[in-house]
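Hi there,

I know you've been waiting on this one. I reran it after we fixed the sequence typo, so this is the corrected version. Both the input and the resulting structure follow.
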Amino acid sequence: MNSSIKAEPCQRLRRTEASTYLKTQWGITRAPTTLAKLATLGGGPRFEHAGRFPLYLASELDAWAQALLSPLKSSTSDRGGK
């Protein structure tokens, strides 16, 4: 498998590919099993099904990753509050 996945926004990725995409594009480590658990419990990126296979749009992974990230901080004591 290619270790650096480049995806078009409308490209659909299987769970393992989505995990690799999050790591290479955003530095966010989420195992495929974690994405599976989040798909069951909620709180993960939105996805579609093709038969029994979950497919993640790159644009949905990007939106989910951005929502996880905090604003830039200048120190560890900076809470980033408004």
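Quick highlight: Residues 14 and 55 are 5 Å apart (CA to CA).

Best,
R. S.
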